[in-house]
Amino acid sequence: MDSKASTTATPLLNQEKPNNLPSNPKKERDFLNHVEAYLAKRDGVDKLLKISRYATKIILASSALPETLTLTHRLKSFESSVGVSRKAFRLGKFVQDVNALRNSNFDSNEDLVLSLIAYGGEGLYFFVEQFIWLAKSGLIDSKHSRSLQKISAWAEFIGYVGSISLKFRDLNRISEDEKCLKSSIEIAITRGNKCQEEKERLCKLCEKKLMKRLSVVQDAADALMALADIRDGDGPFLGPLSISLAGMLSALISTHKNWMSC
């Protein structure tokens, strides 16, 4: 089970600055300082572990190595160990979803319902994952692991359905803003006015739209993995290799998002 890439305050929705604020040019950051800032974040380390895990799963699922090879057994052990380690990073993470719901402003009842599904599903997923980690670590009886994993998978899947729905609504709003801004720029150009600020806002809006689309792709990949857990890998596109590739895609997108945000 893998979680979404998330910000500290709003794990499901990327909150961007209002478009009417002037943009400040970004200063060139020292690479090592950037790496340090990235690794200081819980999600930064988690996503690197996620890449490591799914790279290993791809190798194992592709049958590139013989089953009898010592390296194959070591890779299986490594993949399992990383999977358990990642669950430790979810301790207390459900609080993010609680706060996100508390701090959200809902424009309509539909937004309220979708937010409850998205944040509620993800919050329940993170909450249950804590007990799965305790079971896998041996602190509580492992006989509960199976039922806990099913609850976790369903909560995660439902959360992604809500999250994707919200992000499609956001994309529609962004497209409308983009259309209005392009119209304003065209009018300004015909009048001979400078519109540098509007062009910068349009550029930011395009970047925001791209990141939102990537976020939808990431959520879809993670939802596919959650569905595989629900169905125990039984179904089209739910085989080990397909799920491993989906996990790697999700990991790369979330790593990029976290890198850009820190």
TrEMBL record:
GO molecular function: identical protein binding
Keyword tags: Membrane, Peroxisome, Peroxisome biogenesis
Chain intervals with Polar residues compositional bias: 1-23
Membrane topology label: Multi-pass membrane protein
Region (Disordered), start-end ranges: 1-27
TM ranges: none
InterPro entries: PEX11
Domain of life: Eukaryota
Compartments it resides in: Peroxisome membrane
Any one GO BP annotation for this protein: peroxisome fission
Purpose of the protein: Involved in peroxisomal proliferation. Promotes peroxisomal duplication, aggregation or elongation without fission.
Name by which UniProt lists this protein: Peroxisomal membrane protein 11A
